[in-house]
Design a protein that fits this description.
By secondary structure, this protein is mainly alpha-helical. It is built from 2 helices and no strands. It starts with a helix and ends with a helix. The model has no long low-confidence stretch (mean pLDDT about 90).
Length: about 60
């Protein structure tokens, strides 16, 4: 597992944890905070997933040349 893949896994885990906490909390402000934080981590994970795919695609092209 590369460093980027490890970070991707961490962001996905954090997003899931924040979603769970947001759903379980009874405080409205905390719910909003954790659900937003989960969304932010999901966005970071998606951006990182795109970066990893681009990086691997670029490496594949270089190997063919």
């Amino acid at each position: 597992m590369t460093d980027l893949e490890a970070k991707l896994e961490r962001f996905e885990t954090l997003a899931a944890e924040c979603d769970l906490i947001g759903k379980l909390t009874t405080d409205g402000a905390k719910r909003e905070l954790y659900l937003r934080l989960g969304l932010h981590y999901r966005e970071l994970a998606n951006d990182l997933r795109t970066l990893i795919a681009t990086k691997y695609a670029a490496c594949s092209v270089r190997k063919k040349l």
